[in-house]
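User: Hi! Is it possible to get a structure for several chains at once, not just one? Here's what I have:
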Amino acid sequence: MGSEARTVRTSILRLGLGALGLSVAFGAAGLRADAEGVTRIQQSDGTVQVYRDSHLRLVGKTLWITSADHRGRLQVVNGACSFAGELQRCLTDAVTLHQHGRTHDIAIDHGTVYLNLSDAAQVLPHSGQQLAPRNVLVAFRTAHGTYVSVRGALDEAPQ
Amino acid sequence: MTRTMPAVLAISLIAALSSDAFAAPPNRPAPPPRQAAPPPRQAAPAPPRPAAPPPARPSPPPTQGFNFNHDINARPAPVAQPRPAVTQQRPPVTQQRPPVTQQRPPVTNNAVRPAPNFRRAPFTNTSARGPYQGRAHGAVVQNPRHWSGNWQWNRGLAWEPAPTYWGGGFWGPFALGALAVAALYGYIVDPQSQVYYPSYQVEPDSPGAQLLQNYGLQQTPCGADNLVVIWGPDNSVICAFPNDTVGPGNYDLDPTTLSLVSESP
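Assistant: Yes, the chains can be modeled jointly so their relative placement is included. Here is the combined structure:
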């Protein structure tokens, strides 16, 4: 009797752990499948950091780029938007870094944001490259000589 | 059945952990290509060292999140960017803007090159449109495309000048640093205020190019007489040959409707 009760308790414990593990595993897989943006930052001294699985979110004229660890968020405000065919081209108006509970304004020298909100791939102006549907390409240079490029599919965008 | 279910779930858990937990952490940036490979192992075990020497150029950022240490730790921002000399000469906007008075004679556009003592019109970071801002009360030359509402030429998306760009990007996404390579297209000279306004070639696919296409205008370098002179954002100006739709003279640009307002009544 005591042995059977112990066996039942052990089975219930294993069942609970298994269910918990499955939920954690599927949850992690789901998050990773959403964020596929790649952020490349080339410092003025030549060193390069590449941040994969960046989360890209477009809210109005603002593009939010969140690092995979959710510690850093880049806020890119677009301005002077125009269309080149179906491709929306904006100038980088302002960039703000939200990180470690602080907000830093990043001085921008120049930059451009390309948005393809259509359902077909679009050719970038003066380029042979294509931008896939609902993809974004960001390239800007800061006043301190840091080159930043972001490319990937929008995880959240206005319909 | 009840005895096999926990085993199946446990196997799933192990499989999930082996593919997820042992993979590279998602919050860690990928190592750069120049990261040095680990040294090959020696046949004999090396004596233990007190600490591994740090790499010469650490590739991972010192903090999590994004690495903008060069930008947020360095103050103030350097001003050594390759910008045109006009930015060095720029006085406050209120002093630089050409005086706008009703008695003021019109700006001439027949000077090929400004006198050496003339200064360049400033970037205003506003929607200032040359010496005719506020003075263009003449006839409106409606855009032949007849855009139905404001910003319809831009699919209803409000276009606005970007402060960091010459001309607000209307005639092309010319950054300040790119002005040196932009094609100069003549000058407009204001002899009274001794200010000159350089003109640059309109870039294809820009809003300004769309304006020219709508009116059937062909851009030409400023300087000759009897040209269509269009004043755009941030004291920018371009010139075009007149046609049946637009006669010679000075025009103020209305970016909301992409229409032209004549300076002369």
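The beta strands of chain B are 119-120, 140-141, 184-190, 195-200, 218-219, 228-232, 236-241, 249-254, 259-262. Chain B touches chain A through 64 residues (CB under 8 Å).

User: Great, thank you!
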